[in-house]
C-alpha cells in the first residue's frame, strides 16, 4: 500500500514526463502500469487523491446474516440444508455465523449423523453364520438387516482381514510372486506391441503423406514433416507418445503447427513470378524476375525469389558448355596405328605427337597446335590462332618439315583422328585407299584406333 505522498509524487511525475508510464515506473521504481493509470484517472476526475482506502463493503447484510442463523436454528441445525434453502452463504461463512450466534456449541457443525451401533451378539452371530452358511452372503445379510459389506467388516473386526470368509476356499490362483511377475511380463508385452504398432503407423503415414520409403529413418525427417505425421495420427495416439517416438520437442511441434495454419503471404507474388516466367519463355532467372517485380512496385529479396522459384519448380533451361572436338567422322581413309601406345623414343625425331588445345581467356578463345618430340619433350614447331582451321595445322606442319629437310630422318607423326589431319596439306587430293606416308615423303602419319584417341 502506497501513502498519499507517494501516489501524488507518481502522478506528478507521470504528467511531467508526458504521460509515459514506463519512464515513470523506471524512474520511481513503483507502481504497476495499471495502478499508475488508475491514480491519474482519479486525480483527473477529483483534482486530488483520497487520503486512504475505504473499507470494503460486507458481502452480506446484517439482515441476511440473521435470516440464515434463524433458519439454521429452526430447521434442524443443518448447514447443508440451510445453504440449499437460502442459496447463500458458503459453508465456512455460515459455520462462523453459527459459532458467533451460539458460542456455547463446542462441537463442529456438521450435516451428517453418526453410524448406527450394532450389538456385539449380532456381530458374532453374523460372523458364525458367514462361515457356516449354505446360502449366499447377500441372503444372510438381508436376514440380519444389514448390508453385505457390513457383514464382512464384522468378520475383519473379529477375526482379522486374513481369515477366509468361507471354509471351502478355491486355491486356483498362482502364488503371489509368480502372478506379479506374469502380470509384469504381460504389461511389458502390451507396451512393446503398442510401441511397434505406433512405429508401423508412422512409417505407413510417412509413405502416404510424405512419399517416403517404408524403411525411412523417422529421426532424420525434418520437424515440419514430423509435425505432419503427428497431425495425421493424433486422433489414434496420445501426443506425448507420438512426440517421443519421433524425437520431436513439444515446442517445435506447436511452432510448426502454427506456421502451417498461417496463410501464405507470398501467394500473390508466387502467381506473378510464375506468369512472368512463362511469359518470357522460361528464360528469366531470379535476378530478372526480381527486376520485373520491382517494376510492379513489389520489393522482395533475391533469396526469397530463389526460394519461391524452387518451390514452384521454375527451372531455367541452360545450354551445356560444349567442349572443342575436332573429330568429324571418318571422312577419309585413316593411316595405321604405328605408335600403338608406345610413346618411348630411343633417338630424336623418331616419334612426334601433335594435337590442338583450346584456351579460354578474357579476350576469347585461343587455339594452340604444337608438335612435341617423344624423345625429350622438345617442341619441334607450334602455331597459335583464334580459329582451329587448316591454316593453323598446316603452318605448324610446314615448320616441322623444315627441321628434317636434308636429313635421312623420317619421324612418325602421331595425332588423333581429327578432321584437321585429313584436309589437303596433310593428305593428297584425292586421298589414296591406304595412307601412311605424307606427300613430302619426309613424315609418316599414324592414327590411333577410334576408341583410343585420348592418349594422343
TrEMBL record:
Residues 179-213 form a coiled coil. Signal peptide: none annotated. Residues 344-456 form the Integrase catalytic domain. GO terms for biological process: DNA integration. GO terms for molecular function: nucleic acid binding. It comes from the Bacteria. The keyword Coiled coil applies. Keywords: Coiled coil. SUPFAM superfamilies: Homeodomain-like, Ribonuclease H-like. NCBIfam families: transpos_IS3. This is Mobile element protein. It comes from Ochrobactrum soli. The lineage of its organism: Bacteria, Pseudomonadati, Pseudomonadota, Alphaproteobacteria, Hyphomicrobiales.
Amino acid at each position: 500500500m502506497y501513502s498519499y505522498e507517494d501516489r501524488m509524487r507518481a502522478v506528478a511525475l507521470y504528467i511531467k514526463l508526458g504521460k509515459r508510464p514506463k519512464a515513470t515506473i523506471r524512474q520511481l521504481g513503483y507502481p504497476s502500469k495499471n495502478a499508475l493509470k488508475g491514480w491519474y484517472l482519479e486525480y483527473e476526475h477529483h483534482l486530488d487523491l483520497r487520503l486512504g482506502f475505504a473499507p470494503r463493503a460486507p458481502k452480506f447484510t446484517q439482515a441476511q446474516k440473521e435470516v440464515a442463523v434463524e433458519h439454521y436454528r429452526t430447521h434442524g441445525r443443518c448447514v447443508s440444508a440451510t445453504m440449499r434453502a437460502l442459496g447463500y452463504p458458503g459453508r465456512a461463512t455460515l459455520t462462523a455465523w453459527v459459532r458467533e450466534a451460539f458460542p456455547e456449541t463446542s462441537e463442529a457443525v456438521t450435516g451428517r449423523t453418526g453410524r448406527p451401533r450394532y450389538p456385539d451378539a449380532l456381530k458374532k452371530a453374523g460372523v458364525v453364520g458367514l462361515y457356516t452358511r449354505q446360502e449366499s452372503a447377500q441372503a444372510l445379510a438381508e436376514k440380519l438387516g444389514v448390508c453385505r459389506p457390513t457383514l464382512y467388516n464384522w468378520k475383519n473386526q473379529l477375526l482379522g482381514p486374513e481369515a477366509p470368509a468361507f471354509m471351502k476356499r478355491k486355491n486356483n490362483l498362482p502364488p503371489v510372486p509368480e502372478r506379479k511377475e506374469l502380470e509384469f511380463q504381460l504389461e511389458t508385452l502390451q507396451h512393446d506391441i503398442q510401441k511397434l504398432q505406433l512405429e508401423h503407423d508412422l512409417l505407413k503415414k510417412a509413405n502416404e503423406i510424405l512419399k517416403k520409403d517404408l524403411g525411412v529413418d523417422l529421426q532424420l525427417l525434418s520437424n515440419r514433416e514430423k509435425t505432419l505425421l503427428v497431425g495425421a495420427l493424433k486422433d489414434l495416439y496420445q501426443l506425448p507418445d507420438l512426440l517421443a517416438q519421433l524425437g520431436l520437442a513439444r515446442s517445435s511441434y506447436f511452432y510448426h503447427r502454427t506456421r502451417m495454419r498461417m496463410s501464405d503471404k507470398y501467394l500473390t507474388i508466387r502467381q506473378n513470378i510464375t506468369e512472368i516466367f512463362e511469359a518470357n519463355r522460361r528464360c528469366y532467372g531470379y535476378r530478372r524476375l526480381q527486376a520485373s517485380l520491382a517494376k510492379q512496385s513489389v520489393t522482395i529479396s533475391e533469396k526469397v525469389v530463389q526460394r519461391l522459384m524452387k518451390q514452384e519448380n521454375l527451372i531455367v533451361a541452360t545450354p551445356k558448355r560444349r567442349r572443342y572436338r575436332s573429330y568429324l567422322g571418318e571422312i577419309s581413309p585413316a593411316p595405321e596405328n604405328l605408335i600403338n601406345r608406345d610413346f618411348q623414343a630411343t633417338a630424336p625425331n623418331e616419334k612426334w605427337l601433335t594435337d590442338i588445345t583450346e584456351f579460354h581467356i578474357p579476350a576469347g578463345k585461343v587455339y594452340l597446335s604444337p608438335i612435341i618430340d617423344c624423345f625429350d619433350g622438345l617442341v619441334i614447331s607450334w602455331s597459335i590462332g583464334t580459329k582451329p582451321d587448316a591454316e593453323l595445322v598446316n603452318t605448324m606442319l610446314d615448320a616441322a618439315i623444315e627441321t628434317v629437310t636434308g636429313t635421312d630422318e623420317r619421324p612418325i607423326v602421331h595425332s588423333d583422328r581429327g578432321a584437321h589431319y585429313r584436309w589437303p596439306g596433310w593428305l593428297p587430293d584425292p586421298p589414296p585407299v591406304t595412307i601412311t606416308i605424307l606427300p613430302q615423303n619426309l613424315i609418316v602419319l599414324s592414327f590411333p584406333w577410334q576408341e583410343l584417341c585420348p592418349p594422343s
